[in-house]
Known about the structure:
Elements: H1 5-11, E1 18-24, E2 33-39, H2 57-70, E3 73-79, H3 81-87, H4 89-102, E4 110-114, E5 126-129, H5 137-160, H6 166-169, H7 175-184
Parallel strand pairs: 1-4, 4-5
Antiparallel strand pairs: 1-2, 2-3
Helix pairs in contact: 2-5, 3-4
Amino acid sequence: MPDFEIEKSFYNQGYSNICGVDEAGRGPLAGPVCAAAVILPLSCKIEGLDDSKKLSEKKREFLYDKIIEKAIAFSVCYASVAEIDSFNILNATYFAMNRAINSLSVTPDFCLIDGNRKPEGILYPCETVVKGDSKSCSIAAASILAKVSRDRLMLKYNNEYPEYNFAKHKGYGTKEHYEAIRKNGVCPIHRLTFLKNVY
């Protein structure tokens, strides 16, 4: 389970507003990539906080409200399908992360980034944490905000494009989704660079 040990190690080095950053939606065939940044008080206790991938949808929704309630600051931002197709998914993910960090209502002085690559363009000192969403409470919180926010957006897209059933697979490459693309073609939220061999 994640804890605040990583955050505390940087707090002891003189940093006070330490934000966790994570993304959701790098792999799907449709929809934007989403990133969240969260600054939590180091005394914060949110029972059940964990990597979003290990949690049920119901649990993520419950924790989403708790995180927003207890966070010092939080932000959720996206990079569009057009940006993914133009600049590739890695760079688009960096765009989303930078937007989330820069949109925080409290300026961070250190960022903990899930993964093993430092995003280009971050204005603040930062450290990457491999599997950070299972180690750091701040990154775990960001993973939940990003996942829930993106899933909610895909539910809205489901109303616009019901023939793809985005409500079920959230844009990921399931058998049903590939079959829907072959039957209906692509829609405006499909990532064309992810579908070169499909249509």
